[in-house]
Amino acid sequence: xxxxxxxxxxxxxxxxxxxxxxxxxxxxxxxxxxxxxxxxxxxxxxxxxxxxxxxxxxxxxxxxxxxxxxxxxxxxxxxxxxxxxxxxxxxxxxxxxxxxxxxxxxxxxxxxxxxxxxxxxxxxxxxxxxxxxxxxxxxxxxxxxxxxxxxxxxxxxxxxxxxxxxxxxxxxxxxxxxxxxxxxxxxxxxxxxxxxxxxxxxxxxxxxxxxxxxxxxxxxxxxxxxxxxxxxxxxxxxxxxxxxxxxxxxxxxxxxxxxxxxxxxxxxxxxxxxxxxxxxxxxxxxxxxxxxxxxxxxxxxxxxxxxxxxxxxxxxxxxx
Length: 320
Fold this sequence. Notes:
Layout: H1 7-10, H2 13-19, H3 48-61, E1 63-66, H4 72-89, H5 100-107, H6 109-116, E2 121-131, E3 159-165, E4 176-178, E5 205-207, E6 214-218, E7 223-225, E8 236-244, H7 263-276, H8 285-298, H9 305-316
Antiparallel strand pairs: 1-6, 2-8, 3-6, 3-8, 4-5, 4-7
């Protein structure tokens, strides 16, 4: 098999089809033509009482959970594919080359529209994790995705991080932990360096979530992933997207659901994520070089990132 460090191989769809034939790379594609997705990745719409609870919890504590929205068997197939990609590349984020995780993102309209409004937008901030139950792997350290400006007191946030577990997320395999907004004096202020050192441990809340759930939080919420335990029954495999309400000036619009980005845009986006988050997930010098080449090729630096993406999407949209 060709090397992951060879940019020519990475830009060849056949490389990816051979690497993980169980996943799809059927592009170009508009999900409005097939709302279910080829793998049955439909999202169970929440009941009004579930929506009301999530809205209230998001306003008060800064997070929400819609449990078990996607079918467990579909999540199991995706989790096994992520394992395969991790074994081959060491970087589970390359799963975003394929269609399936994007289909999940587009299927969440019924869960997210009541929280962000109908015309919410996807930001270029995406990641995939595969934490093995070895006692060493762990999620990202305590942080806030944005410091301030995205949520007013008593209101729904304008920016949301949405986290989808493909396997059951438990305290043993590194589930998400948060400091609830109602217990966080700094939630509406700038954070301070090493602020986790001043936490009251009894205020910390674990957020276990079954596979196929939709878990999310305000960009200002202090949160982190736990360390895995060798006693865990399996890995914690998950993907996260960031979304904003339409018209919010603090982010950079990427693309509106339900349209999938094309193959080249995915390559550029993945490369950008690897560079953007290398302080959390270090890169080798060789891989950093490859990522810079891909990002320079598919996401030009001469214009604002959001402008470039808007132009690229507009060329493919016959209504634009």
